[in-house]
Specification:
Chain lengths: 737, 78
């Protein structure tokens, strides 16, 4: 397709007019503006547009032109960046990469002077103290290498040895670079080729080339983190030395221990992940490998430069540190002030799940050190209440180092956030769904990076993840407290792998069922479940919101709504029971209570389970046993002597045909059964259903009818195993430090 | 049409809006047209015109006219 803008050079006014018509001008337009400003003698604006081009996703040609503008205009642009001398050592043609690196680095806050070693010369240059590399005295050395440059055999009879030898080929280079050159290392990871002669068998053939390459990546990672030492001794790591062939693990790190490289001196650009993200067949183009030894397709060299620059910035300390978040339509769907707490989309439904996932991603950023702040136009009290009261809120108030909700304009709020946290505006990244807010921030606080969220919340996580300049530096003392978390997580994964029984696995999930009240927040989801649940649904009675609300208002009705969370996920509201206290004689209408050994006495009452359903995503987790217990507790609370249940068969609910029998209920009125196949069941409240005890039950309703332990409400699953609750004060110190 | 788009690609690759190429232009006529620029140029042309120039033709272009003819042939445009 022909870009309509590509009609030759246009005037600055014309270009500026075109740019003003779109929020984020295309890469081509940014490039043209950079060139036009350069011609017009405004180097600062020229550089600004050249840098803007890098965020607009231009192709190699576009990047090359913008890199040219930067080279010529930078000296007069008056930009203060952190200077660095960077050597590019490549195993393939890195000329394009090296040419784009200054532009990418400038975007990351670093002014680089680049030295590019001769093609295929990098080992000699590192080893020879008289080489151009040594004379250049680099601050950072980029090892831009590809899988084809490893010396791995096509198949290794001793994979562990082969991996150790290969890893040592690289760590020995690191030693010289960090030692005698005194420079940091940025190593590109090896992209495991997508062509595999062993096919799927390679996964269990640890000597196959793709397995070896993956293992080398792992071994290098461990060596860089300074944990490559006694690989075989510790229980941690990937345990590569155990099992058949020591497949792909840290086993290879044995022998490269004592790499002599301190933590933080070696960083990676995970090309394996970048390649997988765009598709390996796009990342590598064999035609250009054969033509001119491009190991990275020219289409992706800009992205490689960008990510390498982000890691460079992290190593030199220019990464951004604070994420400033809007609330309405950013952290949840809808507008709190208009839709109310019950009206916002969060947790349930497709959009609600998308926003939950976005919160989850942000929570993980926060856990690994990104500082969070809220910047919202809202009533402060309302906005805070949303975090305290909404059951699906993943982020909590204390996740935020600063919570700014007011009717001040956002540039004012943002300046205040930076001031309060004691960070520079150039540490902030602003995220907002509203183009107008983004634009005013770009205009008035240009130091702040602005991420333009797409319209579709399903794309939020990817949009944020694609922003590379939150790249953390090395995992250092700052993260020491988090080490235990990583260990706990590692133990959990180990547990999952080793769980010998389903029960053991379930126990390891640390499931928490939370009984929540039926209120304006939960009603929509309850009605949704009533309307669509087919499999685990004993009676399949569909009811609308008004009818459910009316039932709930009746003091003789018990409604039980349960959320389930485990260590890995919050499943949301997944179970609903509606039961009514009825006179025993009424309950006998379609059965024969005298048959049942329920000890029913005329004039007493039973709790009739009108509706019992559970979402299919939690079937098989023993939640039904906990619900039976809760139902019995409700029966006791309402002064009933028994619980009465019904199974009304449909085409889809055979799953629960024997549910009541499994729970210890007695069949009632066995004789009739009903021509429709329905069955009826009784359980005296004197009997307590058996509970496997795999789920912890927390009741957050006002009255506490059940057997639930008197614990405080569990706000969210993510707490389990994460002792680092974090405080704002702590976070601020981290930023200041 | 092809000629215009081709000229535009040349201007971008060599970062020169004033660059004019004709059918008789050769590599010697354009400052900076070295082997690296040539690869970038071929890549940019293949992308712009969505064509794959066969290896055996790569070395045979003696001037811009032959390159243009090749692209027109491959893209079926003129």
């Amino acid at each position: 397709m022909v870009d309509p803008l590509r009609t030759g050079p246009r005037s600055l006014e014309e270009l500026a007019g075109a740019a003003a018509m779109t929020e984020v001008p295309t890469a081509g337009l940014c490039r043209d503006l950079a060139l036009a400003h350069e011609r017009a003698g405004d180097p600062a604006a020229a550089v600004r547009w050249a840098l803007a081009m890098t965020d607009a996703g231009g192709d190699l040609t576009c990047w090359s032109a913008a890199a040219g503008v930067l080279r010529r205009a930078f000296p007069a642009a008056g930009l203060t960046l952190r200077p660095a001398r960077v050597a590019v050592l490549g195993s393939y043609t890195t000329a394009q990469f090296a040419a784009l690196l200054p532009l990418a680095a400038a975007r990351a806050g670093v002014a680089v002077e680049v030295y590019e070693c001769g093609y295929g010369q990098y080992r000699q240059e590192v080893l020879d103290p008289a080489s151009g590399l040594h004379r250049f005295r680099p601050d950072v050395v980029i090892l831009a290498v590809h899988a084809g440059d490893t010396a791995l055999p096509s198949f290794a009879r001793d994979p562990e040895q082969a991996v150790a030898v290969e890893a040592a080929r690289w760590t020995s280079l690191w030693q010289i670079i960090t030692g005698s050159l005194g420079a940091g290392v940025i190593q590109h990871t090896f992209v495991v080729p997508e062509t595999e002669p062993f096919g799927h068998l390679a996964r269990q053939a640890s000597g196959a080339r793709s397995s070896l390459l993956a293992a080398v990546n792992v071994a290098l990672g461990l060596a860089a983190a300074g944990v490559g030492g006694a690989g075989s001794g510790s229980n941690g790591g990937a345990g590569g030395s155990r099992g058949i062939g020591g497949n792909g693990g840290a086993g290879g790190s044995r022998g490269i221990g004592g790499s002599g490289v301190g933590s933080g001196q070696v960083s990676f650009v995970d090309c394996e992940r970048l390649a997988a993200t765009v598709g390996k067949r796009s990342w590598f183009d064999p035609r250009y490998w054969h033509r001119s030894k491009q190991a990275v397709s020219l289409a992706h060299v800009p992205a490689l430069a960008r990510h390498t620059a982000a890691v460079l910035g992290a190593q030199l300390g220019t990464s951004r540190k604070c994420l400033v978040l809007d609330l309405d339509n950013t952290l949840w769907g809808g507008v709190l002030g208009e839709d109310g707490l019950a009206g916002i989309a969060l947790g349930d439904g497709p959009a609600g799940e998308a926003f939950s996932e976005f919160q989850e991603y942000i929570a993980l950023l926060r856990e690994r050190g990104v500082v969070l702040a809220v910047c919202s136009k809202n009533n402060d009290a309302d906005a805070r209440a949303a975090f305290e009261r909404h059951p699906a809120m993943r982020l909590r108030l204390d996740d935020f180092a600063m919570f700014s909700a007011s009717w001040d304009d956002k540039p004012t709020q943002i300046r205040r956030i930076a001031q309060t946290l004691g960070v520079g505006l150039d540490s902030l990244v602003f995220v907002d769904d509203n183009p107008a807010e983004r634009e005013v921030v770009r205009q008035l606080v240009p130091e702040v990076d602005v991420i333009a969220l797409p319209k579709d919340p399903h794309e939020y996580v990817r949009t944020l993840a694609d922003y590379p300049f939150f790249e953390p530096g090395a995992l250092t003392a700052e993260d020491a407290a988090r080490t235990e978390q990583y260990r706990a997580r590692a133990r959990a994964v180990e547990l999952e792998a080793s769980a010998s029984s389903l029960e053991e696995f379930h126990r390891g999930l640390e499931m928490v069922a939370t009984v929540v009240p039926l209120d304006e927040l939960t009603l929509p989801r309850v009605v949704q479940l009533i309307g669509k649940t087919n499999q685990f649904n004993l009676t399949t009675r569909r009811r609308g919101a008004a009818e459910v609300a009316e039932l709930a208002a009746d003091p003789a009705t018990a409604i039980i709504c349960v959320r389930l969370a485990d260590r890995f996920a919050d499943h949301g509201l997944v179970a609903v029971v509606i039961a009514r206290r009825v006179a025993a004689v009424d309950a006998d209408a379609d059965g024969d209570l005298a048959d049942a050994d329920g000890g029913l006495v005329a004039g007493t009452a039973v709790l009739d389970v009108d509706t019992w359903l559970m979402s299919c995503r939690v079937i098989g987790r023993t939640l039904e046993c906990e619900l039976a217990e809760l139902i019995v507790a409700e029966a006791r609370r309402l002064g009933c002597t028994a619980v009465r249940g019904h199974y009304l068969p449909t085409a889809k609910n055979s799953l629960v045909a024997d549910l009541y029998a499994r729970l210890g209920f007695q069949r009632s009125g066995a004789a009739q059964g009903g021509a429709d196949g329905s069955t009826h069941w009784l359980l005296p409240v004197a009997l307590t259903p058996e509970r496997p005890g795999l789920i912890r039950v927390v009741d957050t309703r006002r009255h506490q009818p059940g057997p639930s332990e008197p614990r405080p409400p569990e706000p969210r699953s993510g707490d389990v195993g994460h002792p680092d609750a974090g405080t704002s004060a702590q976070t601020m110190q981290e930023v200041a430090g | 049409m092809v000629q215009e788009r081709l000229a535009r690609v040349f201007q971008e690759i060599f970062s020169d809006h004033a660059l004019v190429v004709s059918d008789t232009t050769t590599a010697d006529d354009v400052p900076g047209w070295d082997s690296l620029a040539h690869i970038n140029l071929i890549y940019a042309l293949e992308t712009e015109f969505d064509v794959r120039i066969p290896d055996e033709r790569l070395a045979s272009f003696s001037n811009v006219g032959e390159l243009r003819a090749c692209i027109e042939e491959l893209s079926g445009a003129r």
